[in-house]
Write a structure and sequence with these properties.
It contains 12 helices and 11 strands. The strands form 2 sheets. It has a 9-stranded mixed β-sheet, with helices on both faces. A two-stranded antiparallel ribbon has the order 5-6. Helix 2 links the parallel strand 1 and strand 2. The longest helix has 15 residues. The protein is globular. It starts with about 35 loop residues before the first helix and ends with a helix.
């Protein structure tokens, strides 16, 4: 695959933040996702959040798994640390990196296929262990790289582009995060940047396991049977010499609505998202009240967005393990091998 880098030269009049960086300094390569993909909006929100927080790009470690969502770290924070893991294994690799160097800011980017299927066990353990990280799931309900099969978060009764009906119950990652012990839980919509940027900023600054589920519509899989411009029709009537896909340009789906308001957002395939933004009176410090609110609204066919739960006194994995304040990767032989007397003292304390 050919990657196109953005020009490094920036206009001298671009606004700089407190640490001397312009917004362009937080960008990455040019996206190869479909035009109008909600994932690109999430990347833009991450760029804006990091710029507003005055985070130096080299202080961030971004990790991902496999899928359209896991390609996106290449499109933001080009000067940060990065690691693309195998399918579903991002949380464990991030946990290891976090234990080795606690001084970095950890950003895990995943998708509904990556986290709710093969990576579900890894997602669960990262949440319950309180790994300090901002875990963002770009949730579109399909496997975009393999042509739109249902993912584990697809709602029962939803239809694929081929008309197949999903008969399986959906996995709600927000509900799981709340039950498993995440101390910052939020849900956003890729088309509502005004809400999404503050949610990401809160996750990046949180002291424990922060989870943000972002509904991000897939624009590629809304062509219908019978169309002479559909992928299937062209392939059946074409003598192909190579396998090439053309993704038609789509307009980005955006939404602006007030706290407490319910809005219906039409997707490219004609389906409707019913989004309700939490109102100002909502108390995000009650974990099980958040679960009740989410399930009550789900029964009405609504998707609740906003900060659902936060524990302001959260502890992370390092506090639970009582690790050294100095990063483990910076410890020398003296600290790592303190000698027989120290080892005997530790063993005696365990008897």
């Amino acid at each position: 695959m050919t990657y196109i880098a953005k020009p490094r030269l920036h206009h001298p009049s671009l606004t700089r933040n407190k640490v001397g960086y312009t917004r362009r300094d937080y960008e990455g390569r040019i996206s190869t996702l479909c035009a109008g993909c909600g994932h690109d909006s999430i990347s833009a929100a991450i760029v804006q959040a990091c710029w507003e927080l005055d985070i130096e790009p080299h202080r961030v470690a971004k990790l991902s798994g496999i899928g359209c969502s896991s390609k996106t770290p290449d499109y933001f924070l080009g000067a940060s640390h990065g690691f693309n893991t195998v399918h579903g294994r991002m949380p464990s690799v991030l946990t290891g990196a976090n234990l080795a160097n606690r001084e970095l800011i950890y950003l895990g980017v995943s998708g509904d296929g990556d986290s709710a299927s093969i990576g579900l066990g890894q997602f669960a353990n990262a949440m319950r262990r309180g790994v300090r990280m901002a875990y963002i799931v770009e949730n579109n309900g399909v496997y975009g790289l393999t042509k739109g099969q249902f993912s584990a978060t697809a709602d029962r009764g939803s239809k694929s582009k081929k008309g197949a009906v999903n008969h399986d119950s959906p996995i709600d990652l927000v509900g799981l995060a709340l039950q498993l012990g995440a101390t910052y839980v939020a849900r956003g919509f890729s088309g509502d940047k005004d809400q999404l940027v503050p949610l990401i900023k809160g996750a990046l600054g949180h002291g424990g396991a922060a989870f943000v589920d972002v509904i991000s519509p897939c624009v590629a899989f809304n062509n219908h049977s019978g169309s002479t411009k559909s992928y299937d029709y062209v392939r059946q009537h074409n003598e192909a010499v190579s396998r090439i896909d053309f993704m038609p340009t789509r307009e980005e789906i955006t939404a602006e609505y007030e706290p407490g308001e319910l809005i219906e957002v039409e997707q490219h395939d004609g389906s409707i998202l019913r989004l309700r933004k939490l109102d100002h009176e909502y108390d995000p410090t009650k974990r099980y009240a958040a679960l009740n609110t989410m399930h009550e609204r789900h029964e009405r066919g609504e998707i609740v967005t906003g900060l659902l739960y936060v524990d302001p006194l959260s502890l992370d994995l390092h506090a639970g393990l009582n690790t050294s304040h100095q990063p483990l990767n910076a410890l020398g032989p003296t600290e790592l091998c303190p000698g027989g007397a120290t080892l005997a003292k530790i063993n005696a304390a365990l008897r």
